Predict the structure.
Amino acid sequence: MDEAEVREIRRAARRQGMTVAEWVRQTLRAARRREPLAEARKKREIVRAASEHAFPTADIQQMLAEIERGYAGREGR
């Protein structure tokens, strides 16, 4: 870091009423919290892999009717 950056960090710490060390710790913690938990590349790979699959789908009313018919068929057992 150049001297101008160090001076700006000292000023920022002073404005917050803390030491430079504490300001740096808090700033690094805040930056870490903003970072995504998984890398963007890994997330894209997961979405891409999931999109390659074909899952059966149907109208919700049709699915509910089929479920009900399944329950009705078990009543006599």
Residues 4 and 71 are 74 Å apart (CA to CA). The radius of gyration is 28 Å.
